């Protein structure tokens, strides 16, 4: 028996340009060996151990994809049986359940395969629709927070059923092709998140849709950036995040909308919008550090936006400061507590 961390299997799959399967195996271990077959012959087997929800995602893969993983697992090991590589894998969940942005990939794959299974009659809608609905809401929120474009319009499996009926798709192939195209972009983006995680910790969404979407955009820009102007773009987006944050938190009817000179606060003046809100929510000298923290995040974003020698490190600091400021305001506003 061979115990493997799956590095060879992932390399094999990457060579086939199956980054989706490779990324699913990033946290998996393999047990590879041979067992006695029904007719006395020795047969190779591949057992995959992975944390949830990766184990569930691997389990839901199509027969073809499961076979490809089995082939990848034994590609560099002398464990083939008389008929070639094993045609399937066994899957078991092990370890702690994983959470956060890294789980977008397995959730997307589980969601995709559930839509295909329903459309091909392998699962009954009434038996899995509540799972689908909960995961759909989680994916909409999670993809927005990660800057992943997710445009699945089907809020329930019944919606999906009525859609393919209206389209007149009588064949399984038509439905399967539609679903795979629908998920191709989000899955590819999620694969990138698994292989190249951001150094900036992901935070819980605030529920302010524009703020969450722009934070996701900033993270996506950071992940893709490679030159000074790209890092500057992260600063620009972080500044937009803080403007949206000020607009979301500031209520003109509650917080003063004019300064000492009687000048009305512009709706794009993040500094004054947040300052007016902060002085109302946290007045007094005891809270000046909190106010200074939020103002400093805006200063850093403006600095990065205009710095011609912008770097990945400075962009990471700016993204972290902006994310932290958003989290602080959300906590004070009762959005995340």
List keywords for this structure.
single chain, 337 residues, alpha+beta, 3 domains, 4-stranded mixed β-sheet, 58% helix, 7% strand, elongated
Description:
The structure is a single chain. This protein is an alpha+beta fold and 337 residues long. It folds into three domains: 2-97, no CATH class; 102-195; 209-332. Helix content is 58%, strand content 7%. It contains 13 helices and four strands. The protein has a four-stranded mixed sheet, covered by helices on one side. A hairpin with a 5-residue loop joins strand 2 (29-36) and strand 3 (42-50). Helix 5 packs antiparallel against helix 8 (172-195), helix 9 (209-224) packs antiparallel against helix 10 and helix 10 runs antiparallel to helix 12 (288-306). The protein is elongated and about 90 Å long. The relative contact order is 0.09.
**Portion in beta strands:** 5-15%
Categorize the overall geometry: elongated
**Biggest β-sheet: count, sense, barrel?**
4 strands, mixed
Mean pLDDT: 85
Integer-rounded radius of gyration: 25 Å
* Assembly classification: single chain
Number of domains: 3
Distance between the termini: 49 Å
Q: Would you report the number of β strands? A: 4
Unreliable stretches (pLDDT < 50, length at least 5) are: none
Tell me roughly what share of residues is in helical segments: 55-70%
Tally of helical runs = 13
With strands numbered from the N-terminus, the spatial order across the biggest sheet is 1-2-3-4
Q: Give the SSE string.
A: EHHEEHHEHHHHHHHHH
Structural class: alpha+beta
